[in-house]
Amino acid sequence: MRRLLSILAIALATAGAAQAQTGQAMLVLDGSGSMWGRIDDRPKITIAREAVRAMLETWPQEQEIGLMAYGHRAEGDCADIETLVSPAPLDAAGLASAMERVSPRGKTPVGGAVERAAAELSGAEQASVIVVTDGLETCGADLCALGDRLAGGEIDLTAHVIGFDVDDSEGQLACLATATGGQYLAASDAATLTAALGQVSAPEPAPSEPVFVDEFEREALGEGWSVDHPDPSGFILDGGALVTMTVQPGYMGKRPDQANIFRWTEATLPEGDWDLAADFSARMGEVQSLGGRRAIVQLGRYEDVDNNISTYVFRQGNSNDDLWLRLRAVSGGTETRAEVEIAGDTRGYDLARILRDFEKKGARLTLEKRGRDYVGRLSMNGWAMQEGGPEEIETDPVQILRSSGDPAIFAGTLGSEQTVAEFSRIEIREVE
Fold it and tell me: Are 425 and 215 a contacting pair, CB within 8 Å?
């Protein structure tokens, strides 16, 4: 039972942290009949109320929160959705009292409740919905389609979904969360309650100043950088940018003699958590009928070909002309990777426009370390792969015990055609 509560608390803590950035949150509590089911001989509704009360004890006083429930007033009524507390500054006693009025009896209209919550949060520029449900949608809503609509809406709304005694990690509940940039978590028991409650009301830390930054405002790289297998004809500092182009097909970590890997030797990555980020623009070729240029832009930590971790955007150059974001870790010669397809010429993307935006508007690559988890992220500068799409894309995390080497950047090709990239800034931030 403790683990059940802790996972629920973790999910709510995650949403609480997001709330610190989004302004308003609505907690949606399942009041369907199945919430009378028992875990460790206690009703699930009782466990849920206690977990939420624990969360409220440390919820940031300045953050607004509301409470909604469904299925608690009538059997078989998909319209049984009620706002118990409108989003407002925290009133823990009032929220706790409102939860006591939720007596489970009805259906599970998850989609209808989330749509109602989104409507109530429409006055906020950014908002989050936190759904705690012990069952799947029973009123016919397409939660994947709903997630897509919310993601393309006028407000920046994130839906976090907690599957409480139900696992739908490959189904509609998870689809709703991921489509909006939220998280889906399955809750079944609770081994880490104490740690979870410590995270519940912790606001997101304020962005720290970079501990190292380089904007390339000079005529030569200088002593703070070294270049593996340098080919001086393949790079130059010009106009506040490191301009580099293909000198040998491959990529950082592919072969030990790869030319023009740029190591930031004067910069030291912190012992704890950190973000390594680089701003770039890149000329990655034109759209072609039989596949395009196999371009790559890469950021990472590099010791040698057998020990490195990097995140990179690459153009696959096949008949679909796919673009991917990949995170690749190599430890002792063993490779682990996570990747996400970000565009393709044959699936409704305007690849020609995307390639122009990479060249004219640019983007940012980030390698993020949190504990033993590493994530690769691509952030666009005010543009997206598709209209209404996200301006930030990230990989799933890859876990490694330790990483070593220098911060490093690379741009090149996986084929024979030339790729030109300009790195205008690189920075390291320590994360508390």
Answer: yes
Q: Establish how many alpha carbons lie within 13 A of residue 33's alpha carbon, considering only the half-sphere containing its beta carbon.
A: 9
- Token pair listed for 283: 């000329």
**In angstroms, what CA-CA distances link 275 with 26, 374, 420?**
30, 10, 25
SS3 string, 60-115, reads CCCCEEEEEEECCCCCCCCCCEEEEEEEEECCHHHHHHHHHCCCCCECCCHHHHHH
Residue for token pair 């995170």:
327
Pairwise CA distance, residues 423 & 432, whole Å: 27
Round to whole Å and give the CA distance between 124 and 158.
12
Tens-binned pLDDT, residue by residue, of the chain (432 aa): 333 333 444 444 444 444 434 478 888 999 999 989 898 888 988 988 888 888 787 777 777 889 999 999 999 999 999 999 999 998 999 999 998 999 999 999 999 999 999 999 888 777 888 888 888 999 999 999 999 888 877 778 888 888 888 888 788 998 998 888 777 777 775 443 223 323 333 455 555 789 999 999 999 999 999 999 999 999 999 999 999 987 788 899 999 999 999 999 999 999 999 999 999 999 987 776 566 668 899 999 999 999 999 999 998 766 667 889 999 999 998 999 999 988 876 567 888 899 999 999 999 999 999 999 999 999 999 899 888 778 899 999 999 988 999 999 999 988 777 889 999 999 999 987
Would you say the pTM of this structure is higher than 0.85? no
